[in-house]
Design goal:
mainly alpha, globular
Length: 224
């Protein structure tokens, strides 16, 4: 990652997308930013749910985000990386990102799966037959309440807030540098408004989902 960062900074014109001001480019930047936020949300949900339900890694987790994909945290990382590429890099960088992602994580996933098979020889093979490895079955997700596969708590976000702010700040700094140097402060201001609106919608959705999860837990407690 350090070598990649140095290479990008040394040759910015090769990697960074030139600013044209078109609607297509602005749409890609907003989509990229939205994917970054979605990926962060999935990672927060997966880590938080695992921390509260794994019983110190003694239990096989099959609920929450783990009922739609076996590796939700890697799905979150993939969406974050894809979002960064769409927001600031040229199109061909997508191919590089996908190749690097496969090389970095596919062997790690297989290693983790082998460990889980040895820990849960009866339940894990059945779990693998029902749930895809990284990319979810969207038709199956539609049948579920979003709280079932994307549980959220504000406290989970606070544990990840440092890394989230660092990544978003880095992307914003790159976009600011590209736009100010190529099109001036006005272009940067307009795009910043759209990005802030995206963040505002994201925060509202996170708050809504966390409140729904709290209500669901309270209803369960009341019934029990």
């Amino acid at each position: 990652m350090v070598c990649a960062g140095i290479g990008v900074l040394c040759f910015p014109k090769i990697f960074f997308r030139s600013y044209s001001g078109g609607l297509k480019e602005q749409g890609l930047e907003i989509l990229g930013f939205a994917l970054i936020l979605l990926g962060q949300t999935i990672r927060v949900s997966a880590r938080g749910y695992k921390a509260e339900n794994s019983q110190d890694s003694r239990a096989l987790i099959q609920g929450g985000p783990y009922q739609v994909v076996r590796n939700p945290m890697y799905l979150g990382i993939f969406l974050i990386g894809l979002g960064v590429v769409l927001a600031v890099f040229k199109w061909w960088a997508i191919a590089i990102f996908v190749i690097v992602f496969i090389i970095r994580y596919i062997l790690l996933i297989y290693k983790e799966e082998a460990k889980l098979r040895s820990m849960f020889p009866d339940t894990y093979p059945q779990y693998c037959q029902k749930v895809p490895r990284i990319f979810p079955n969207l038709s199956g997700m539609i049948k579920l309440d979003i709280i079932e596969y994307l549980p959220l708590k504000i406290s989970w976000f606070w544990k990840e807030i440092g890394s989230m702010i660092a990544l978003l700040s880095l992307v914003l700094l790159i976009e600011a540098w590209v736009k100010i140097t190529q099109a001036g402060f006005k272009a940067f201001f307009v795009q910043s408004v759209w990005l802030l609106l995206t963040v505002g919608i994201f925060m509202a959705l996170v708050t809504l989902l966390s409140q729904r999860m709290q209500q669901k837990n309270e209803n369960k407690s009341a019934k029990s």
